[in-house]
Amino acid sequence: MKLKICKKCGRIKSFFQFYKSKLTLDGFEGRCKNCRRFVMRKQYKSDEVHKRKSEYQKKWNIKNPEKAKIHSARTRLKLRMGIFRAYSGIPPKCACCGEKHIQFLELDHINGKGNKERTRYGAGNGLYNFLKRNKYPKGYRILCSNCNQAIGKYGECPHNKLKK
Predict the structure, then answer these.
(1) pTM more than 0.70
(2) Which of 7, 13, 25, 72 has the fewest CB atoms within 10 Å, measured from its CB?
(3) Peptide bond preceding 91 in cis form (omega within 30 of 0)
(4) How many structural domains are present in the chain?
């Protein structure tokens, strides 16, 4: 097994831990994959790169409003369905009554801190992105609109009273 020293972290690593490059004599980059990823993430998050991407996206959206609208709706639906599947399974359904129509389903904050989280992460996609990034933390469930409203107003759902 061939070994190489990373120019960034100085560790000795196997060639498998380096990206290939036609520009170097040994055929591999000078930085290991981990160091390169770290640098690329830092560069991507820099204002200049983000600003250029943002400007390009805005111009494209203005030129292609119909495509942008369709793409945005599809992305939102995909994210929403991912959240629903993570918290209720496949197919998504209400944890209380079993309602399966997607149009009626909502994300419920079990501990009742929905208002705080909406102000912190934003409603809809902001919260959904947070949940996805954090690998779907506990404290949430999927309820239909009726069950969610009843729990919010009366403290419990009428379905629970019927079951007793």
Answers:
(1) no
(2) 25
(3) yes
(4) 2
